[in-house]
Amino acid sequence: MNTNRISLITLAVKNLQAQADFYAALGWRQEFQSEHVVFYDLGGQKFGLYVIDMLANDLNKTPDQMGTGAQTLTVNFASKGDVDAAYDAALAAGGTALKRPDDIFWGGYTGSWADPEGHVWEYAWNPYWTLDAEGRITS
């Protein structure tokens, strides 16, 4: 059994429709939406937005116990120019700038922003990884 993988990434959200609208403005296409959850296909993985009250209940917690976490979701791009374009598009869609893309100490190029509920995203170019035409890391 291979446990060295992630099948689904789920963000707890307070306002499902506002968050779904934000990701639609980024160009994300929904695979499924109900009253409590939205799913997006990531080509072999899924990304979900789930109403925080429902997710907390699933985890035997209260919404106040959920916190915001200290995670960063990262999307890698094939070039610095792609990072800049995607970063600008995220801000135009309603994201909040955290750090403008710039060269970073390990040799890459990264910038970060937050969605309307504060989930942190990093857009990056990594000179040590090769991406295929779909943007999947191949090396």
TrEMBL record:
The lineage of its organism: Bacteria, Pseudomonadati, Pseudomonadota, Alphaproteobacteria, Rhodobacterales. Residues 5-126 form the VOC domain. Pfam families: Glyoxalase. InterPro entries: Glyas_Bleomycin-R_OHBP_Dase, Glyas_Fos-R_dOase_dom, VOC_core. Gene3D superfamilies: 2,3-Dihydroxybiphenyl 1,2-Dioxygenase, domain 1. This is Glyoxalase.
